[in-house]
Design a protein that fits this description.
six-stranded mixed beta sheet, magnesium, PRTase_dom, two-stranded antiparallel sheet, orotate phosphoribosyltransferase activity, transferase, 7 helices, alpha/beta, pyrimidine biosynthesis
Length: 187
């Protein structure tokens, strides 16, 4: 998995990490931006993400979920890898707003048993508020959510926020991993 992790880091640096002046969804300004979809929507990137996160899921995980749109390819990738490993785990997509027609649902995907253990997945965590909305919607639906996992932790309070909410948080990479690798490649 170490080689796979390095390959994913290189993809993130090559396609997702940008430097400049950016306004984040949290409202904060930043000198860098990470567009995870530039990696998670590539076939090889999705497979790497799916494998690495699937390997990291806690035992007993019955579903993976995330807030649309950034988490959509991630939860799908993990679900597909789980099926390839003959341990299928369904993917759930959590809407920011309830659907305006049909069932008016916040959550799309297979219905799981009440109390099912669901892990929330995210591409990039800054303050932690985006994934927390998914946690709240899933808990309101009767699921047990104790963990958030991300591709990249910007290390701007998300980890501490999740801990204050009684959640475990894991990220495949910290922002310093991307920045260090960027410098190495610039040589």
């Amino acid at each position: 998995m170490t080689e796979l992790r390095q390959q994913l880091l290189d993809l993130l640096v090559q396609y997702a990490y940008q430097e400049g002046d950016f306004l984040l969804s949290s409202g904060q300004r930043s000198t860098y931006y990470i567009n995870g979809k530039q990696v998670t929507l590539r076939a090889e990137g999705a497979l790497m993400v799916g494998r690495l996160l699937w390997e990291s899921l806690p035992p007993g995980t019955q579903g993976v979920a995330g807030l649309t749109l950034g988490a959509d390819p991630i939860v799908t990738a993990v679900s597909v890898v789980s099926a390839l490993e003959n341990q299928p785990i369904p993917a759930l997509i959590v809407r920011k707003e309830a659907k305006g027609h049909g069932t008016r649902a916040y959550i799309e995907g297979p219905s799981l048993d009440a109390g099912a253990s669901v892990v929330v997945l995210e591409d990039v965590v800054t303050t932690g508020k985006s994934a927390m909305l998914a946690v709240e919607r899933l808990r309101d639906a009767g699921y047990r959510v104790n963990q958030v996992m991300a591709l990249v932790d910007r290390e701007q309070g998300g980890r501490e926020f999740y801990q204050s909410q009684g959640l475990t948080f894991e990220a495949l990479f910290r922002i310093e991993d991307l920045q260090r690798r960027t410098q190495e490649l610039r040589g």
